[in-house]
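Recall the central idea of this unit: under ordinary conditions, the amino acid sequence of a chain determines the structure it adopts. In this exercise we apply that idea directly, starting from the sequence alone.
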Amino acid sequence: MPSLLTAVLGLALAACVPAHRRASWSHFPLPRNQPHDGLAVVSQPDGYGLHIWLETDTRTAGVCRPRWVVDAARLFNGNGSAPFSSGLAPRAEWFEAVARQDVRDALRRELEALCRERAPRSSWSWVEPPRRPEQVTAEPFPLLEEKQLLADPEQVRRQEDAMGGAAPEGPPP
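Accordingly, the structure predicted from this sequence is:
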């Protein structure tokens, strides 16, 4: 009986919290650069939350799957008419959000649509998001791996020196 009374009292107190003081857990597409590449999740009071950036992995020929970016941007004005994001939200909030089935369902819908846009001939393959920090793996992004795009700084310095491109000493004339 005391545990039932405690539960009822806890529910009554929770019901007394004004709506602007609790998270609505609403979620909606919030594009970054193209349709379906972002999802807003209102995970805190007053419209604050996460702007989850969505990326695809097409490294396997004919297959498109999610590439999880666990560092989400901070969402502002998520309950308003002009939501926007800036900075980073703590990873703990990302894990809290993806623990919710409704958020995972929304992520799945948006990522499947993004894969249809980016790789229309590839088959869609869902991969669950990491739910704990130890499940996060550093994903390499293909453009950053291309060796021809990144010059060796020492080699560039030697080439500049050979061309007489060393910086002059002292103040400019």
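The chain is about 30% helix and 20% strand.
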